[in-house]
Every structure is written in structure tokens, then in C-alpha cells.
């Protein structure tokens, strides 16, 4: 059976490849720092499930040290020239979108199909993680489609992965780190503190007020923590489960699904989500580092209002 562990291994192999490419880059005077950083990150994926928690913690600290001491540095930029890129774009036109569109199409298809495929009476993939596994398989298929279409050198994918990770830098690890931070907050009892504040200030006989608090709280905590996955356990433990589900009998599945969407609205409005909002401005060389956020705020607020109303009208319908 294909499980999430196999996806971790696949990601770890990619990170290991990036580390090897960096190690061979003699144009970067700090290549050893960068090699160690991505190499340790690879270990967290390849063996993280089997390592003691304290060891994983030391690995994270080591990554911080390698990123902080003298930085990761940059090697000489390689790849196709601008003229070559323009020529390729003119040649392929809109067909260049085929590999990219393959990913969502195969992901949606796999989400429904893989649930029904069994091998010797056992499901082919872990049903609980079917969407994530479908996304990983879709990415591999899209890679194969792109390689068949463009016929680049065999090492091009890992070199391009290295180039993109160089552009993103340490921010590439933020989603994983912030998700772990959310789990730590939940264990530390932050959800109980939020619940206490909510019961003190929210009119508990008003379901709409509770839903509004949960949706806006998801967005605000996401803005503070930089990731909706970090905000979710805190807000769900503090308001979602005790109030929306237990007190008012709301559907936890609907609450969780739309609650995450509310959190993503906060992602659009915060510099803490550096990999989404700050890195693009650097890649596009925009003069205002908050340009992406400023453009996204109106859309984020409208989506947050829509998610709040959807939660209220759908979560209590059984």
C-alpha cells in the first residue's frame, strides 16, 4: 500500500539531489553550508518518522545554524538564457501549460479512482491520505509529460529544483516548521486559553457570533503564525470543537474544511507567509516587497466573508 511515508521518501530524495548539486557547485563559496542545510532537510524526510523527537529537534537546530552562520550563499546562475526561453515559449505556445494542468486533473481523478483500487484485498493507497498521495503521483506524471514534450537533459529536473529552492531559500521549510509549531501550541494548551477567552467575551447563545469568531480567528492566527496548518489546531481546539461542534451540534467535517479556507485568507494578507508573499516579489524584482500582499487583501477579505457565511449556513445542516 502506498502511504504518506512513501511521499516523504520521494521528497527526501529530491532534497538529497539538491544537496548533491549544491555540493558540486564550486562557484558558491558557501556551498558546504547549503549542502548541509538541504542534506539535513533530506534526512528529516527520509528518516524523520524513525528518529527520536530529540534527534529531529537537533536536526532543525542544525539547519538554523547553517542558514544563520554566514548564510547559504548563491552560486553562479545556470540554465537557459532569456533568448532561449523566449524561443522555447514561441515554439510551444500554450502547450507549455499541459504539464502544469496535468497536476490538478490527475489529482482530482486519483482522489476518486484510488479509493476503489485494491490489491489482494487491500487498498492501493492509504484512504486517509488519498488526496495528498494523488497529488504526489500527479506531480510525477506531470514531470514525465514535461520530459517527454521538452526532452531536456535527464538532470534538468533536479537542477531546476535546486534553482527554485535557491530563489526561495530558507522560506521553503516554513510550511513544515509552522505546522509543527501549531502542534506544539496545541500541546502547550494555547487552545484552552483561546477557549477561555472565547467563553468570556463571545455571546455563547449566538451560533453566528461563534462562527464569525472561529472564521476570523483562523485568519488572524494564520496571519500571526504564517500558516493555516499552524493556526488550525489552536482555533479548532479552542473554539471549533467545544463551541461549534459540541455546544451547537455543528458538522466537524464542514467546519474543518471551510475553517482551513478561512485560514488561507489570512495567508494572503501576511508577510509571515514569506514563501507565498515575499519570495514572489523577490523573484519578480518588484520595488515594494509588500506589493503581492496589497493586491491580495481585497480578495482575501471578500473570501473570508464568503467562508464565514458558508460555514454558518452549512455547518448546522444535518
Which features does this protein show?
318 residues; mainly alpha; two-stranded antiparallel ribbon; 15 helices; 2 strands; globular
Describe the structure.
- This protein has a two-stranded antiparallel ribbon.
- Helix 5 runs antiparallel to helix 6.
- The longest helix has 25 residues.
- It is globular, with a radius of gyration of 22 Å.
- A hairpin with a 2-residue loop joins strand 1 and strand 2.
- By secondary structure, the protein is mostly helical.
- 72% of the residues lie in helices and 1% in strands.
- The chain contains 15 helices and 2 strands.
The total of beta strands comes to 2
Give the SSE order as H and E letters. Answer: HHHHHEEHHHHHHHHHH
Task: Give the integer mean of the pLDDT values.
Answer: 85
Low-confidence region ranges: none
Q: What is the SS-derived class? A: mainly alpha
Query: What integer value in Å does the Rg equal?
Result: 22 Å
Content of β-strand: under 5%
Helix content: over 70%
